[in-house]
Amino acid sequence: MPRRRSRGGEAAIWPGFVDGLSSLILVLMVVLSLFVVAQFYLGEELTQKDSELARLQSRIASLADQLGLLELENAELRGQVTSLTGLLEEKEAEIAALTGRLAEAESAVAASAEELEAEKALSEDQKSEIATLNAQLAALRKQLASLQEALEAAEAKDLEQQAQIENLSTRLNAALARKVQELAEVRSRFFESMREVLRDNPNIKVEGDRFILGSDLLFGSCSASLSERGRSELRRVANELIKLERSIQNLDNQEGVRGWIIRVDGHADQLPLGPNCRVLFDSNWELSTERALSVVRYLENQGVPGNRLVAAGFGDEYPLYGGRDAASLAGNRRIELKITQR
After folding, report:
1. pTM metric for this prediction
2. Which helix (H) or strand (E) holds 337?
3. Which of 206, 210, 235 is nearest to 295 (CA)?
4. Running DSSP on this structure, what letter comes out for residue 5?
5. What are the φ/ψ torsions at residue 133 (nearest 5 degrees)?
6. pLDDT of residue 329
């Protein structure tokens, strides 16, 4: 169909095309103008946005730095929190302990309060007891005053009696001195009588207050049985002792001379017993004791009161002579008679 158009038709289309193209160009120019304007405003906007973005990035960097600092502070705070948490736990434990102690203290206070109440109640009873004790004390003081008066009276009487006792003591001492003198005279007469009776016997002698008879005069070797000669000698001794006992009997009821006795002491020599003698006696002590007993028995049989005689054996403990010769040994074998006090 277009091929059939004529030139006249083509001429008619061109003005419209130009108008359309002009309109299009105008539109394009308007659009371009709008684009340029828009581009300008967009550039301005972008510039503002870049400035804002730069500012925001700077702000972000600043905030990042602040965040780092905050994180460090946060770490420190966490450490502090941990430390404070431990401290808090310790304080809580202390508080719990203090709470327990407070409870104990409250219990103690409660108990003390109860005790205080009990003490208050007790103090009332004690006050009553104190009043009673004061009354008793007053009574005791009164009794003490009475006793003091009685004591003073007794002391005065005691002084009087003391003077009497001193007087009696002086008189008694004088009496005792007289009796002792009498006893000394009796003992002297005893020794003089014994010397007279046995003056011709060389085996009998006086040593101090002792009358000594040789054992060889009275006994055979290793024997506690009196020989006939010994009996004869002891009969004379017994007669003198009987006389002595009568003299002492007159003094015996007086203080200071009561209980005087004749002590018969047996002594042996220092030699040990021989085999034959040990069959009869275990030691020199036993031999000396048996000899003293034999003398006491014989004197009692002759009439000397038994309550005036006592026997003692000393073995070889107290020799008169230290030698081992025959004379010294014979002198140590002896019977001693001594007037003494029981």
Report:
1. 0.47
2. strand 334-341
3. 235
4. -
5. -65, -35
6. 92
Would you list the domain boundaries of the chain?
180-341
User: Could you tell me which CATH class the domain 180-341 is placed in?
Assistant: alpha beta
DSSP 259-327: TEEEEEEEE--SSPPPHHHHTT-SSHHHHHHHHHHHHHHHHHHTT--GGGEEEEE-TTSS-S----SHH
pLDDT in tens, 131-179: 888 888 888 888 888 888 888 888 888 788 888 787 777 887 877 777 6
Q: What confidence score (pLDDT) does residue 120 get?
A: 65
Percent of the chain whose predicted confidence (pLDDT) is above 90: 20
Contact status, residue 310 vs residue 264, Cβ threshold 8 Å: yes
- Report which of 177, 242, 185, 230 is spatially closest to residue 204, judged by C-alpha positions: 230
CA-based R_g, the chain, Å:
75
Residues 6+ apart with CB under 8 A from 301: none
**Helix/strand/coil (H, E, C) string of 206-269?**
EECCEEEEEHHHHECCCCCCECHHHHHHHHHHHHHHHHHHHHHHCCCCCCCCCCEEEEEEEECC
Residue of 229, 221, 243, 223 whose CA lies nearest to 308: 243
Out of 32-36, 264-268, 270-274, 322-326, pick the least confident.
32-36
In one-letter notation, the amino acid at residue 238 is A
- Two tokens, residue 12: 């008619």
- Per-residue pLDDT of 199-211, as tens digits, reads 666 667 777 778 8
Give, rounded to a whole angstrom, the gap between the first and last alpha carbons of the chain.
202
CA dist list (Å): 246 to 190, 285, 295: 11, 33, 20
Distance CA 117, CA 125 (A): 13
* pLDDT single digits (tens) 262-286: 899 999 999 999 998 999 999 999 9
